[in-house]
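task queued by scheduler; priority normal; single chain, no ligands, no partner chains; default sampling; output format set to C-alpha cells
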Amino acid sequence: MTVHPLTALVTGGNRGLGLETCRQLADRGYRVFLTARRAADGEAAAAGFERSGLRIGSRPLDVDDPSSIAALAEGLTRDDIALDVLVNNAAVSLDGFDETVARETIRTNFRGPMQVTDALAPRLREGASLVMVSSGAGELTGFSAKLRTAFLDPSLTRAALIALTDDFIADVADGTFQRKGWPGSAYKVSKAALNALTRILAAELKPRRIRVNAVCPGWVRTDMGGPHASRSVAEGARSIVWAATLPADGPTGGFFRDGRPIPW
C-alpha cells in the first residue's frame, strides 16, 4: 500500500500570511506548495526554506487569469499530486472606491478563489480541508437588511451569488450603491461574498467529506495590515492552520477566528 505524504497548496504563499502558513504546515510535516503570481518570487520564497529542511516547493499562479489556473491544475495532474489541504489566501486591498476598484477586488478576492477551487477540486483527496482566508470585514454589518437576507439565504446558489456581486459593481458604477444598501468598501463586499461561497462549497463538497471553512486571521502586521496591526504574522497564520488541519469530524461551512465561530 502506497503511503502518500500529506500535501498542501497555499495561494499567495510567497510572503506575509501565506508564507507563514506554508512554514507552519511544513513544520507539521506537510509537503507544501506555495503559489505566486511571478514564478521567480515563488521560487525565491521556497528557496528560503531549504536550509531548514522543510518540504516547500513553488508553482506559478495568477488567480485573476483562467489560463494560469488551468496550467496549475494541469501541472498537478501531470505530476500526480493530490492535495489534502487547499488554502485560498491570495487577495488584494486596493486604494480608492470606484467601479474599477470594485470590479478588480471582486475578481481577485471572490472569483479567484472560486475558480481556483473549481479547477483544483479534482486534485483534492476525499476528506481534504479547504480554507478560505476571509476577514472580519466580511461580516454583514453595514449591509441593508435585504442584502443581509440575500447573502444568508440557505438556498443561495452560485449563480445568485455571482449576480449579487455583479449588481454591486453596477451599483458602484452608476452611483446608486448606498441607496441599494451596499457598504462603501469593495474589500468588505468581496469577503462577504467569499463567506457565502464557503457555505455553498461546503454543501457541494460534502459528499466527498471535504471540509470548507472561512477564517479571519485578525488584524495582522503584513503589507496589507500595516505595521500597527495588533497581531503578528505567526498569530494570524495559526487560525488558518487550525482550519487546514481539522480532524475528519471537524466543522464545515463555518466562519472562524482563533478556532471559534464568529458572526457572518
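post-processing summary
- The two ends are 43 Å apart (CA to CA).
- The chain has a mean pLDDT of 94.
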